[in-house]
Amino acid sequence: TIFLSSSGAADRPTVLQDGVLRWADDGTEVALFGVNYYPPFSIHYQELRKLNIDHRKVIEQDVAHFVRLGLDVIRLHCWDCEMSDEAGNLLDNEHLQLLDYLLWRCKERGIFAFLTPIAWWGSPERPVGFSTRFTMHQMTTEQEAWVCQCRYLSQFLSHVNPHTGLAYKDDPAVVCIEPINEPIYPPGTSDEVVVRYINALVDAIRSTGCAKPVFFNCWGGREQAVAASKADGPSRQWYPTGLLAGAALWGNFLPRVARYPDLSSPALAGQARVIYEFDAADVPGSYMYPAMARGFREAG
């Protein structure tokens, strides 16, 4: 079931206690489940536009379906390149306005948001945002790229959603922040450099007064660096059957999900942990998911 306050809104603040993300009002553990969703951005935005479909009406319809499905969170990679300039300044354009609208519609229906402000990915629009200037290796190791990312993060979190009257940093419907999606580091990059990079992004977030939990993406590993950084914990994914096999995968895949070791490192003791994506791709049926949930719980 999804949480609905007396107003029906996702207005429940969270607090970190001893490495567990809890609801501030009653101390119970936060356990949210949902989907990635992108009508404000990229191909999703463009395809709706080509079909001359109102993005806002699509958002309203889809959010209604999310409620019917019992989902209580969306995760958003935000296409930074579509709503920033080359220096990392936030642009108040249609992409940002649709993001505002989506977050508002979700909030009023009791659906929280897990925001990843920097996706780095390109766009069909050929935009001029700051991340188009840098490779991912440069994003994670070069000072000029760090400055742009920090500027963007501080402005993004300070942006006031006109529908709610709240900055993202102050809206309880935004349950946590993951600064960047799936960072990649050049070969030979030391953990010391990774820790400095993470800390620069976290400092930019905290400079706004944002007290929300900050999870750092460990798609490429680096849990030790995350544990040593100012981040509140790691975010991870799990695709035990890979992706895009091109055909149904038959057989018993339960042995592949007997354990989820990636977040079991002793270095992460006492840190909160979150799964940002997972799927037993191409496996017919749903038998894998309870076993994956067991693996996640075992890993903390």
What labels would you give this structure?
31% helix, alpha/beta, 3-stranded parallel β-sheet, globular
Task: Describe what you observe in this structure.
The protein is globular and about 50 Å long. Strands 3-4-5-8 form a four-stranded parallel sheet, with helices on one face. Strands 9-10-11 form a three-stranded parallel sheet. It starts with 13 loop residues before the first strand and ends with a helix. The chain has 300 residues and is α/β, with parallel strands linked by helices. It has eight helices and eleven strands. Helix 5 packs parallel to helix 6. The N terminus is likely disordered.
What is this entry, summarized?
With 300 residues, the protein is of the alpha/beta class.
Task: Tell me what portion of residues adopts beta-strand conformation.
Answer: 5-15%
Average pLDDT confidence is 94
Backbone structural class: alpha/beta
What percent of the residues sit in helical stretches (DSSP H or I)? 25-40%
Main sheet, how many strands, which sense, barrel? 4 strands, parallel
Order of adjacent strands in the largest pleated sheet: 3-4-5-8
User: How far do the termini sit from each other?
Assistant: 22 Å
Low-pLDDT segments, ≥5 res = 1-7
| Oligomer state of the chains in this structure | single chain
Give the H and E element order: EEEHHEHEHHEEEHEHEEH
Topology, number of strands = 11
Q: Which shape, going by the Cα principal axes?
A: globular
Q: Number of DSSP helices?
A: 8
Radius of gyration: 19 Å
